[in-house]
């Protein structure tokens, strides 16, 4: 019984959206794109990002464009 209460309480919490309403997903917005790639330079999954599927698609396209234009690295091998 206690677990059921905890689960319902946990699901009722609203998290802040990862992208604010004024932010535009664009390949030139490097600060925004860096929040959605790992330390190795990989694109984080949609579950980790808490993005909608449409936002994730736009984010992936923007990150790939930024990589091609050398605004973001393909890999981050600083070891």
Strand content: under 5%
Look at the structure and give the mean pLDDT: 82
> Ends: how far apart?
49 Å
Name of the CATH architecture of the domain at 28-67? Irregular
CATH topology of the domain at 28-67: 30s Ribosomal Protein S18
Largest sheet: none
Q: Helix coverage percent of residues? A: 40-55%
Oligomer: single chain
Inertia-based shape: globular
CATH superfamily of the domain at 28-67: Ribosomal protein S18
Number of helices: 4
Unreliable spans are none
The tally of strands reads: 0
Any idea of the CATH class of the domain at 28-67?
Answer: Few Secondary Structures
Helix and strand content put the structural class at mainly alpha
Order of secondary-structure elements: HHHH
Radius of gyration: 16 Å
Structure description:
- The protein is an all-alpha fold.
- The chain has a domain at 28-67: 30s Ribosomal Protein S18, CATH 4.10.640.
- 46% of the residues lie in helices and 0% in strands.
- The protein is built from four helices and no strands.
- The chain has helices spanning 2-12, 30-34, 46-49, 53-68.
- The protein starts with a helix and ends in an 11-residue tail after the last helix.
Topology:
Elements: H1 2-12, H2 30-34, H3 46-49, H4 53-68
List its traits:
79 residues; mainly alpha; 30s Ribosomal Protein S18; 46% helix; ribosomal protein
């Amino acid at each position: 019984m206690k677990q059921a209460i905890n689960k319902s309480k946990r699901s009722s919490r609203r998290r802040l959206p990862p992208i604010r309403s004024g932010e535009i997903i664009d390949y030139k917005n490097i600060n925004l794109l860096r929040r959605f790639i790992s330390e190795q330079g990989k694109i984080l999954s949609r579950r980790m990002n808490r993005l909608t599927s449409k936002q994730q698609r736009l984010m992936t396209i923007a990150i790939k464009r930024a990589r091609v234009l050398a605004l973001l690295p393909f890999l981050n091998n600083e070891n």
